[in-house]
C-alpha cells in the first residue's frame, strides 16, 4: 500500500473525543449551537442542544435546574431563556501532550493518506451553571440577612484601619510570582475567545475541507519523509533493545568517564572538558585527548569554546551561561552574566591580579555572581586580591604566534564593546601596579631556583643575540652606504604620526610584559609595524587591496575608524598563518584606499566635535560603476562644503546637477541604496 503524507491541514487538524452521549442527546448537525477556541491554549468550548421532547428527558428536573440558575426573571443574561435546561456546555482538555505520533488516515483506491494531528482534545461536560446557581443562592441569603442587621449598622463603632505600603518587588519574588498557579490562571484567562462557525457533515464547505485530507502531490518528491530503505524501516519498527543501557549504574549528570568522552566528536570532547575544567593549558588538553590527536584540529576547535588568557585557554562565557538561562543567585539573565564574566577575563589579559570590589563596582552584579566568575579562573590571596590560577604559558605563545595574534584581535573587539557598555574610564583600562605583584615568596624550592636560573640564562642570551644582530646590521649598512652615490639619495618627508602602527599591533608597557600572550620584548613586533619581508609585500598588497575593494563596494563611504574596525574583524575571521597577520600600518591602509579609486572627503566638522581624528577622516568610493555614480558624486561635493545639509537642499541640488526632477521618494531611495553611511555622517 502506497503511503502519502498530506500537508494541507498541517497544524490545523484537531481530533475531538466526545463523551458517551446520554439518551436525550445526539451529536448531529442540529445539536451544535456555538463553538469557540483559545488557539494558544488549545482550549475549546462547545454548546450543544438537548432534545427536551425525548421520552428519556426529565422535564421537571430540567425546569428545577433552570429555576436555580436564572431565578424567576428572564432577560438577556439568562442562561436558559426557555425556563428549561435545553443545552449543555462541553469544555476541552488535552488528551496527550505529545501528539507528533498521531495522524488521521484516509484509505482510497489502494492509497493511504496521512495528516498529522495538531492536537487531541477530550470534551467533558462543564458544570459552571451550578456555580451560577450557588451564587444566586448566596445573594438571596445575603439580602435576607441584610434586612435584619440594618438597624445595628448605625450602632457599630468606628474601627481603626492600618495602611501598609508595598515594598518594591525583587527579581526572585517576581520569578516566584510568574511561576505561581494564580499567575498562570490569570494569563490563561486573559487570552480572548475566538468564535467559530460549525459546518455540518453534509455541508458543501465540509465536503471541500475533507478533500484536503488527501495528498495534493502526485509524486514522491514531497514525501521524502516516508521514503526509507528496508533496513531503516525495519529499525524503526523494531528498535534495538535498551536493556544493556538500563543495567549500567546511573552516574551523576555532570560526570562522564574518559572512555565515554572519547567516543564523542573532537569538538564535543573539547567543549565538555573546558566546561568542567574552566581553565587549562594547551599541553594538558592534548594529554587528555589521547595520543594521535591532531593538534591543528584541536586548535581549530578550542577557539570556538575558549579564549586565550596569559597563554592559557579559558572557557567562553556563553558556553557556561547559554541563552535563555539566568543566574541561580540573583536571576540576572545570561546576557548580563556573559558581559560581566568577559570583563573579568579581559582584566586578566591586562594583569595577573584583579580586585573583587572593582569588578562589582563596574559590572553592578551581586557579590555571589562576581565570586563565581573569579573562582572559575583565579585564586584568592589574602590582602592582595585574586591572582590568575595558572602561570603564563610562554611555550604556547612562542610556538603559535598566529593564534596569539588572532586572539589579541578578538580581545580588542571585546574591549571596545565593554567600553561602550560599562563606560570604562582610563583607570579601568590601565593596569594597576601592585607592590606585592613582583614580590618573591619567602620560601623558594630547589626546582624554582633552577627554573629561575634557566629563565635568566635565556634572557641574557636573547639580549646578547639582539646586540650581535644590531652590530652586524650596522656593519652591513656602513659597507653599503660607502658604495652609494650621494646624488641618488632621495629623502621622503612624511609625518611621523602616519608611520604609527594600527591598533592591531601589540601594546607595550604592561605589568607582566604580556598582552594576551604577546611579549613586548620579542622581535616579532617589527613585522607588526609594517616592515615586511621582500617576498611577502606583493601578496600582502593583493590581499589588502581585495579587502578594501570589497568593503567599499558594499558601504561606499567609511571613516578610517570604521574601516579599521572592519579590518580587525576580517583578521579575526582569517585562518592561522595568513599573510595579513604580518601587520598593516595606518599609512599602508590609507594608501591602499586611495589606490582603489576612493577619495578622501574633507567634511567640515565643527571644531567642538567629540569625534576622534580617525572618525574625522572620511573616504568614499568615487565610481562604483552603477546607476548612482553621478548622484553619489553630487552628494559628496555637498558634504565637502557642509557637514549638515537639509533634505530639500539635497533634492534641489540633485535635480539641478543630474537634470532629473526627483521627488521626495526618489531622493529617499537614492540615500537608502547608496548613501546610508553618508547620512550617518550628518549625525556624527
Automatic annotation (TrEMBL):
Pfam families hit by this protein: RPC5, RPC5_C
BP terms from Gene Ontology: tRNA transcription by RNA polymerase III
Domain DNA-directed RNA polymerase III subunit RPC5 C-terminal: 432-682
Annotated Basic and acidic residues bias: 134-143
GO CC term (a single one): RNA polymerase III complex
Chain spans, region Disordered: 134-157
Protein name as catalogued: RPC5 polymerase
Amino acid at each position: 500500500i502506497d503511503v502519502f503524507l498530506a500537508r494541507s491541514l498541517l497544524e490545523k487538524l484537531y481530533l475531538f473525543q466526545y463523551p458517551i452521549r446520554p439518551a436525550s442527546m445526539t451529536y448531529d448537525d442540529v445539536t451544535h449551537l456555538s463553538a469557540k477556541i483559545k488557539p494558544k491554549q488549545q482550549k475549546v468550548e462547545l454548546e450543544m442542544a438537548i432534545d427536551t421532547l425525548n421520552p428519556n428527558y426529565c422535564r421537571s428536573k430540567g425546569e428545577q435546574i433552570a429555576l436555580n440558575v436564572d431565578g424567576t426573571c428572564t432577560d438577556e443574561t439568562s442562561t436558559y431563556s426557555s425556563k428549561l435546561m435545553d443545552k449543555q456546555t462541553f469544555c476541552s482538555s488535552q488528551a496527550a501532550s505529545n501528539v507528533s505520533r498521531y495522524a488521521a488516515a484516509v484509505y482510497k483506491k489502494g492509497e493511504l493518506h496521512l495528516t498529522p494531528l495538531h492536537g487531541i482534545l477530550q470534551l467533558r461536560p462543564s458544570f459552571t451553571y451550578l456555580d451560577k446557581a450557588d451564587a444566586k443562592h448566596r445573594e438571596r441569603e445575603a439580602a435576607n440577612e441584610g434586612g435584619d442587621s440594618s438597624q445595628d449598622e448605625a450602632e457599630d463603632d468606628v474601627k481603626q484601619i492600618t495602611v501598609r505600603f508595598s515594598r518594591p518587588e525583587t527579581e526572585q519574588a517576581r520569578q516566584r510570582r510568574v511561576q505561581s498557579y494564580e499567575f498562570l490562571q490569570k494569563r490563561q484567562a486573559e487570552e480572548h475567545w475566538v468564535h467559530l462557525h460549525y459546518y455540518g457533515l453534509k455541508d458543501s464547505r465540509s465536503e471541500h475541507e475533507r478533500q484536503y485530507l488527501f495528498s495534493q502531490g502526485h509524486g514522491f518528491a514531497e514525501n521524502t519523509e516516508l521514503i526509507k530503505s528496508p533496513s531503516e524501516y525495519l529499525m524503526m519498527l523494531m528498535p534495538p533493545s535498551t536493556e544493556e543501557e538500563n543495567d549500567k549504574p546511573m552516574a551523576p549528570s555532570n560526570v562522564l568517564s574518559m572512555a565515554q568522552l572519547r567516543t564523542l566528536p573532537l569538538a564535543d570532547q573539547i567543549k565538555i572538558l573546558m566546561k568542567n575544567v574552566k581553565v587549562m593549558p594547551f599541553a594538558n588538553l592534548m594529554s587528555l585527548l589521547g595520543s594521535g590527536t591532531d593538534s591543528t584540529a584541536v586548535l581549530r576547535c578550542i577557539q570556538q569554546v575558549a579564549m586565550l588568557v596569559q597563554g592559557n585557554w579559558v572557557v567562553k562565557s556563553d558556553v557556561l551561561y547559554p541563552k535563555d538561562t539566568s543566574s541561580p543567585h540573583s536571576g540576572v539573565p545570561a546576557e548580563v552574566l556573559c558581559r560581566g564574566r568577559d570583563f573579568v577575563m579581559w582584566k586578566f589579559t591586562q594583569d595577573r591580579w584583579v580586585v573583587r570590589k572593582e569588578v562589582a563596582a563596574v559590572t553592578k552584579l551581586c557579590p555571589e555572581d562576581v565570586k563565581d566568575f573569579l573562582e572559575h579562573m583565579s585564586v584568592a590571596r589574602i590582602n592582595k586580591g585574586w591572582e590568575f590560577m595558572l602561570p603564563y604559558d610562554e611555550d604556547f605563545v612562542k610556538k603559535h604566534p598566529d593564534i596569539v595574534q588572532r586572539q589579541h584581535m578578538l580581545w580588542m573587539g571585546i574591549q571596545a564593546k565593554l567600553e561602550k557598555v560599562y563606560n570604562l574610564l582610563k583607570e579601568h583600562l590601565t593596569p594597576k601596579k601592585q607592590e606585592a605583584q613582583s614580590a618573591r615568596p619567602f620560601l623558594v624550592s630547589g626546582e624554582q631556583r633552577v627554573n629561575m636560573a634557566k629563565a635568566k640564562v635565556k634572557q641574557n642570551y636573547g639580549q646578547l643575540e639582539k646586540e650581535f644582530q644590531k652590530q652586524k646590521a650596522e656593519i652591513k649598512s656602513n659597507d653599503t652606504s660607502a658604495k652609494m652615490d650621494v646624488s641618488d639619495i632621495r629623502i621622503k618627508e612624511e609625518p611621523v604620526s602616519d608611520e604609527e602602527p594600527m591598533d592591531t599591533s601589540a601594546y607595550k608597557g604592561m605589568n607582566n610584559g604580556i598582552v594576551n600572550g604577546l611579549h613586548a620584548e620579542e622581535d616579532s613586533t617589527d613585522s607588526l609595524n609594517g616592515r615586511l619581508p621582500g617576498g611577502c609585500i606583493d601578496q600582502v598588497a593583493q590581499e589588502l587591496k581585495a579587502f578594501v575593494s570589497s568593503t567599499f563596494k558594499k558601504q561606499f563611504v567609511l571613516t578610517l575608524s570604521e574601516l579599521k574596525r572592519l579590518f580587525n574583524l576580517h583578521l579575526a575571521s582569517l585562518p592561522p598563518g595568513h599573510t595579513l597577520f604580518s601587520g598593516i600600518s595606518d599609512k599602508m591602509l590609507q594608501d591602499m584606499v586611495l589606490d582603489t579609486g576612493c577619495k578622501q572627503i574633507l567634511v567640515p566638522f565643527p571644531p567642538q566635535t567629540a569625534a576622534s581624528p580617525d572618525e574625522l577622516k572620511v573616504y568614499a568610493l568615487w565610481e562604483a560603476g552603477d546607476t548612482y555614480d553621478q548622484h553619489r558624486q553630487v552628494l559628496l561635493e555637498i558634504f565637502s562644503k557642509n557637514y549638515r545639509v537639509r533634505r530639500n537642499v539635497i533634492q534641489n541640488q540633485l535635480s539641478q546637477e543630474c537634470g532629473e526632477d526627483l521627488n521626495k521618494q526618489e531622493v529617499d531611495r537614492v540615500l537608502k541604496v547608496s548613501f546610508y553611511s553618508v547620512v550617518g555622517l550628518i549625525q556624527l
